[in-house]
Every structure is written in structure tokens, then in C-alpha cells.
């Protein structure tokens, strides 16, 4: 780049600074099957980042098993998850942004949406349980989006499964190649520690010592010094590592970045063991903000024009003020407070005067932010999930899918005097992404579709407490809702006529087929081979 004059130099330096800001950002999500240790790991990462001072500051945001009707718990969860939805902190020269995802599977849509805003993911796996159902579902979303994935195998302080068989299971069930970058020495009561393969160092585990002990460096694994620290286990470690080198190819960062290979670390989040090694490797190898796909073109983070999209909305944070916060992921350009941006869906200009950043688990108003960052935008109902904001260019971000719900109920007004409040409440909760709303083409009744029972309870509770409206649900025994599509309009009309009683419309006016059972869905698919049945709303 040719630089001429003082203003040219200033511009050049500013551009370099901008690129540097992008390169040092690491925006990621931590996911796990409930109880594998996501909350504990998040907390320990925050300790390293200085975002919290003491352990226990991040309360588990999960709803304990068996407490599905505990509304106070739901409220508590919402309150906490607002504060901890995004946690930014500085670590070494990096700006780390952790996006929290709800642990409870009934809120998995929220998790899926959050995963659209991350550049990489850390999956936590319980060393005794291995891959669990929720881990698989979450991995499917990562695979769909080619998100780079790192694995942390947790709870080595407890009796664990054989390490090789755990890795095999991950490869088989999560359908991703693995490459261990550290290796555990025994587990449970015999757990000695973790050998860091790529740094050739050993971290010794001692359940009684709280402080983090410095790693012990070796020339390589054959160093006789190893015996001094782990005695007879040294030989077995050498054998296992020889096998590792034989079985697993060298760690290939490109394959990791392409989402084809998961580097694996071992530790115990509870004892803050192996966590710093994970974080150090993470900031070094995880991707900085990646290009984003829009309907029009690919957007590169270093482009000058600002672009961002809304991936999450929190409504009624303070019940006394109808306040909402829209979470905006910045995809390109420098975000500036009070600059005029365009809200693409409405075509209106907007000025964001008090954007907040989520640093050190606190919200604070910021003047600028960079690609990879998440900003909180106070909103009074103008923004919805999936909205694009830009410095002017007409683009639309892709990839905020709704998933085919699996539980359905008709929703009815239980207080005729409050129908306006009810409709407003339903609209806003659906915009927030709590559940999906369909309208039957047959009888015009409103149908709520969810992935779990808990969402119905949340809707009922929130309608009453936030909108002063009462609703009643009526069971609708349905199997699945799927979006249908066909190139032949005549065939589509024929299908809709035949299935008239089972057709509904989604919030964007698209046709949805509500199948009573798996069998009926299969029959429809067999009979109408030229109709495509989609199980996510993005196709
Ligand atoms: P989650 O967010 O993935 O659902 O898991 P969370 O961190 O809440 O951890 C689930 C349980 O596992 C917690 O115990 C937690 O203390 C424990 N745990 C997490 N990491 C480790 C580890 O490395 N080793 C051992 N031994 N336990 C670990 P809990 O009894 O359910 O909750 P709490 O009362 O201790 O908070």
C-alpha cells in the first residue's frame, strides 16, 4: 500500500490498528451436555481473564432436573443469563468473547442461534460419560456451519473411561477427526496430571493444592526426569504417546479451522486443572473473526463498511420499563456510537446512542467496537432476531435457522378482556425466539411449536407477569412441522388442497406441513416425491 503525506500515514496506521483489533479477537461458545462442566469451565476461564476474582461468581444458569415448574428458577435463570450472556475479557494480547448458551435442552434453539454468532466452539465432555445425546445435537449444528471445534475432556479427577476409547467415541459419534494435544496420566484417585504434547511439559495434579503450579518442561517425553515426577507411570505414558503419534496425524491447524479436526485437551475444571493450557492453546490456534455469509455476498471482517446482525433479544429485563436488549454481532467495520446506521428490514436510519459491551461480566457503554464483538443495543421493539444493521449497504445475513419444533399446542386467550395484551405478548415472545408461532390454514387458530415442555411454561408465566395476559394451551398431538417447497406450483397447490387440514403458515408467511406422525410424514414424502420437506427454516 502506497502511503503519501501525513493524512495518508494516519489512515494507514488506523487501518493497521483496525486489522490488529480484528486479529486479536476470539469469539466462541462453550457447549456441553448438561452437567459435563460447562459452567465450571466458563468460570475458570473468567478467572484467568481477571473478569471475576473469586470462584463461585458465575452461578450455574441451568435449571436443575425436576424443577421444570419452578418459575422462580426460570426467572432467576433469565436474570443471570442477561448478565452472563456475553463475557468479554482481555487475556495476554487477546480479546476473548465467550457467548453463553443455556444448558437446558428445552432452550436449545437459543443455543443454536447463539452458535451462529461464534467463530469457534469448545465442547466439554465428561470423561466418565463420554459423548452424550446433547453433545451430538450441538455438534451437528457446528458441522452444519463448519465451525472449528476444540474438545475439553473434563473431570479426570474422577474415575474416567480409557482415553483411546473416549477419542474413538468422539470420532465416531461426533463425526469429526480428533488430535489430542495433551494426555492424561491415569484418572480418579490415581490421576497424576496431564502431559502437554505440543509444549512437551507436565502439569502435576494435586487435589489439595489450590494454586496453579507451573508446568515442568522436558526435552521430550523420553527425558529421564519424567520418572522423578510420575515414577512408574512414565513408561506407560511413553507407550501411550508413541501410540498417539502412530495413530493420529500431526496437528493440522488448517483442518481444525475448516471444522474437520478437533484438538483435544484433558483436565478437571473443578480443580482448575488443565484449564490454562486449554486457554493458551485456544487463543493461539482458534480463529479470529471469520467472513460471514449474506444473501448477497460474503462479508469480510476487515471491510470498512459496518455490518452486524441481531442474534438474540432479551425483553423486559426490567419489568417496570418495557426495556429490551438486542445482541448484535459485529461482522465487519468499526462500530461507532452515535453513527448513523441503516436498519435493513425497515429501511430506516438508526443511531445507537448507548451501546453496551459486556466486559468483566458488567455492562458498560462503549464508544466503539470491532468485528467479533457483541454489543447490546437498547431497543423498544424495533429489532427482531435476524435483523441486519449496516452503514448503508443492502445486505441480509443468512443462517439463523428455526428448527422444526416437536411439541405443539393451540394457544387460547383465557381472559377475553386482555386479548390485545395477549397478542402483543405472543408477538414479542416469538420475536425473542422463545418458541415458534404458526397459524392453521384450516381453522385460523394459533399454534405454538416448541422443542420442550418448559417453553410452554415460560410462555404462560411471562404472558401473565410481563403482559398481564392469560393464556390456555390445548394439546395438539403432532409429530413435526416441516417447511415445504416445490418448483411446480400446480403440485404444491394439489398437496395443499389434499392436506388442507394440516397446513399452517409460519411468521414469514411460508407454508408449513404439520404431520401427525412419522408414518404420515413418510407417506406424504413417498407420495409427493417432487416436494421438498425441510426440517429447518433456512434452505
Ligand atoms: P454444566 O454447566 O455443564 O451443566 O455443568 P456444571 O459446570 O454445573 O457442573 C456439573 C457438576 O459437575 C457440578 O456439580 C460441578 O461442580 C461438577 N464438576 C464440574 N467440573 C468438574 C470436575 O472437573 N471434576 C469434578 N469432580 N466435578 C466437576 P454439582 O454437584 O451438580 O453442582 P455444585 O453443587 O457442585 O455446583
Automatic annotation (TrEMBL):
Gene3D superfamilies associated with the record: P-loop containing nucleotide triphosphate hydrolases (3.40.50.300), Peptide chain release factor 3, domain III (3.30.70.3280)
Sequence positions that bind GTP: 32-39, 100-104, 154-157
InterPro entries: EF-G-like_DII (IPR053905), EFG_III/V (IPR035647), G_TR_CS (IPR031157), P-loop_NTPase (IPR027417), PrfC (IPR004548), RF3_C (IPR032090), RF3_dom_3_sf (IPR038467), RF3_GTP-bd (IPR041732)
TM region(s), chain numbering: none
Location relative to the cell: Cytoplasm
Family: Belongs to the TRAFAC class translation factor GTPase superfamily. Classic translation factor GTPase family. PrfC subfamily.
General function of this protein: Increases the formation of ribosomal termination complexes and stimulates activities of RF-1 and RF-2. It binds guanine nucleotides and has strong preference for UGA stop codons. It may interact directly with the ribosome. The stimulation of RF-1 and RF-2 is significantly reduced by GTP and GDP, but not by GMP.
Protein's name in the database: Peptide chain release factor 3
Species annotation: Mangrovibacterium marinum
Lineage: Bacteria, Pseudomonadati, Bacteroidota, Bacteroidia, Marinilabiliales
